[in-house]
Amino acid sequence: MLPKDTYKHQGMRRKLLSEIMDKGITDERVLAAMMRIPRHFFFEKVFIEKAYEDKAFPIGEEQTISQPSTVALQTQLLQLQKNDRVLEIGTGSAYQAAVLASMGNRVISIERNRKLHKRAKHLINQFQFNKLTLLYGDGYEGAPAYAPFDKVIITAAPPSIPTKLIDQMKINGIMVLPFGNDAQQELLRITKISDQSFKQEVITKCMFVPMLKGTVD
Ligand code: SAH
Q: Which of 66, 93, 102, 109 is catalytic?
């Protein structure tokens, strides 16, 4: 069962959102979605008070739930339009997927670690999202059965641009991803210009867990 979302949690969330706004997030729809989704639902009970700090936090399996301001920035950079079809790589806790789904988008999210996938699925079943699908698999392969996508968000850092995912995007589609290795990463926004070309913007430095090949059972 989901924990309660009390006035105290809502107050903490409002405070977190004002910190996020101070860090340059202006998209009202992103802020509203993050106000709607109780981030503490994605934490184990003993760590609930950590949910409203602007920090990444361990979720087991050596993975982390992304820092709230990073979730906000990646989501804002996607420039979501109503009914956009969105592919997420790296479900993790499913917090980012829940934020995207609550904005009314059709969301497909892939996780390579079966334990995390199962846990996320169990949690998400308790929300009333009818346009969110969680898949177990290797994100490098994308989700051809659900393509083409308007937007792609990657929440683990690949060492090279995953071209199969660009192939699964529509023309003018946008991908937001951390790019690089353990020592150095940059958050990139890629816009697909044609079937053969894309443009690339460097947004800021960042640090994510690596995007790894294959699956973990
Ligand atoms: N979006 C998540 C953040 C998760 S951290 C959240 O909101 O909590 C990144 C996740 O990417 C990890 O769970 C990791 O297992 C997953 N991951 C890494 N490489 C992957 C791949 N090739 N395909 C799918 N998931 C991958």
A: 66
